[in-house]
Amino acid sequence: MKDTFLHKGMRRKLVETLRLKGIADEAVLEAINAVPRHLFMDSGFIDHAYVDKAFPIAADQTISQPYTVARQTELLQVKEGDKILEIGTGSGYQCAVLLEMGAMVYTIERQNELFKKSKLFLPKIGYRPKKMIFGDGYIGLEEFAPYDGVIVTAGAPYVPNPLLAQLKVGGRLVIPVGKNVQIMTVFTRKSPTEFEKKEYGEFRFVPLLEDKN
Ligand code: SAH
Predict the structure, then answer these.
(1) Is 0.85 surpassed by the pTM of this model?
(2) Selecting from 3.40.50.150, 3.50.30.60, 3.40.50.170, 1.20.140.10, what CATH number does the domain 5-203 have?
């Protein structure tokens, strides 16, 4: 598990690509520059780690495209020490980016294979989420609520109410909503009963699944 000069150079190029595509938050770009994405991919795909594309991981899932990770992280407006809930741990890459930003991360995954893999892997390369949970993201994680931010990294056919309910006032839910194509949507909690909704264009995710296998 090496992070060579070659990898670091490719990562800097990826960061420049993301800048050209419109990512402006320097803290997000720095986090992308810091996380060795190639280590989160199966060896057969390592050559593709620093192109701006999604790639297969285990259990028919994908590691999100770097642009998507950067955009969602930017929309979440993470500050040092923020308590963030992530739905869909997957490879753990997005989680590592959030940890680089100084967030305390709680993350949920429903595929046992991915859950077990990421739970072992993240600490091995120095990333320590507060909690990694094997469970269903539709219900969020009430036990540690409220959160400064909730990020959903799979396509949600609708907005699960518990995820809104578990936000602090001032907190944000970043969620791609839709069946075949998703609209990146941000809900900001304005008061205990009011939410502001904003939309940020089309994305494509693997689905947020409702029934456990
Ligand atoms: N954040 C991940 C992206 C993985 S893709 C990364 O950086 O690699 C989306 C993930 O959401 C998959 O791992 C999938 O298993 C998971 N998922 C799908 N439905 C879910 C649900 N209901 N609860 C929690 N995780 C879910």
Answers:
(1) yes
(2) 3.40.50.150
